[in-house]
Amino acid sequence: MRNKKVWPVCLAAVLAVSTVLPAYGAVGPGQAEKPIPEGITTEQWSKLNDQKIEFDELSNLVRYFNPDLQNTVDSIYQNVENAEYIYGAMRGIETKNDIEALEEQAKALKNTGVTDENGVPLYMVYEGTVKSLRSNADAMQRTLKKLKQPNSKINFSITQVTRQYEYFADQVMIGYNSAVANRALLQKAAEISNLAYEAQKLGQQIGTATQTDVLAAQKEVLSAQSSLLSLDHTIDDLRRSLGLMTGYSADKVPEIGGLPELDMQVIASLDLEADTAKAIGNNYTLINLRRAPSNKTTTGMKNKQDSVSEGEQGVAVTMQAYYQAVKQAKTAYEAACTAYDKAVLDQGKAERSFQLGILNKIAYLQSQMAFLQAEGNKESAYSDLYQAYTTYQWAVKGVISDSQQ
Questions:
Q1: pLDDT in tens, 71-103
Q2: Distance CA 245, CA 254 (A)
Q3: What is the DSSP letter of 223?
Q4: pLDDT of 211-235, one tens digit each?
Q5: What is the number of domains present in the chain?
Q6: Partner residues linked to 121 by β-bridges
Q7: Are the C-beta atoms of residues 193 and 220 closer than 8 Å to each other?
Q8: Which of 113, 148, 183 corresponds to the end of one domain?
Q9: Does a structural domain hold residue 29?
Q10: DSSP, res 296
């Protein structure tokens, strides 16, 4: 049952959507039946509820399953529902009858000269109460009308916080793929260092290596194992973090897909000037500054204009930096691709030499490591490019991380 006590509604509290609320009873992908959201096809919904996270699904997974976001949005809408209930109570039959009764009492007392304890004619007190009740109801009606508009502060704030969650999910998935790209290299490094350690121990027995050589090789083994273990922890943490951000429970670790293929022609033809104009128009911080009150004073309006102008310049500078980061990452990726193509040829030669007995096992493993390093560098460079490009595109959409703004 709703609480029938009438509280004043504070719009600022309703709009405080950036606060992260604890997740209670969150239902993640595939854990329970939920109605298909409007605008989502049955096929799309089925894919969202499987046990694999694809990059192009991230936004919808966050929007429909992130527990903190769901609780935040639910809290906002609950406040709107409370406001509607309050308005309904203020316009209800009981309140309407009270108003009519006060009006009748005011008429009856108008010519009697009866006053309250302060000497104010009692009929004026009743008339003032009636006016106040009606004014409050009308004000509440106007507030509710504004809250329900598509471009209302509430809907704007929900969109803003949703996109921030989506942005961070993107960054985590890119980081995960980058870490995975480096694992094969570290694993091969651990394997080679262990073989080198065994070779040094054998060399010490036949007099071709010293104790110092053996200890140095052992140190390399421990270092490689430590690096691999640390990276495994990082990969696991990123996987679990991404799972939680997309609504999966802590005990359900989903499979995570790779990064989609970028269109290099699109990247090469980025229009910084046009994109900067879009970023300035879409930027959430700037929109909030533009909507902020100026107190309708000359000083207030100037300060507001200065703040907006400074913010626009900041976004323009950030966009320039993001643009350069994309171009540099593209150049680095192209260089890594060239190095990888060469490594493929070298690896083929090493494979044939090893099969013919010309190359020993350690040298063969070293050639494999060189190939894996080139492959890892290529994949890492692609992750860097992907991150630079998506960061640029998020800025165009209006989302710039706090560290950059």
A1: 777 676 665 555 555 545 545 434 555 556 666
A2: 12
A3: H
A4: 999 999 999 999 999 999 999 999 9
A5: 3
A6: 115
A7: yes
A8: 148
A9: no
A10: T
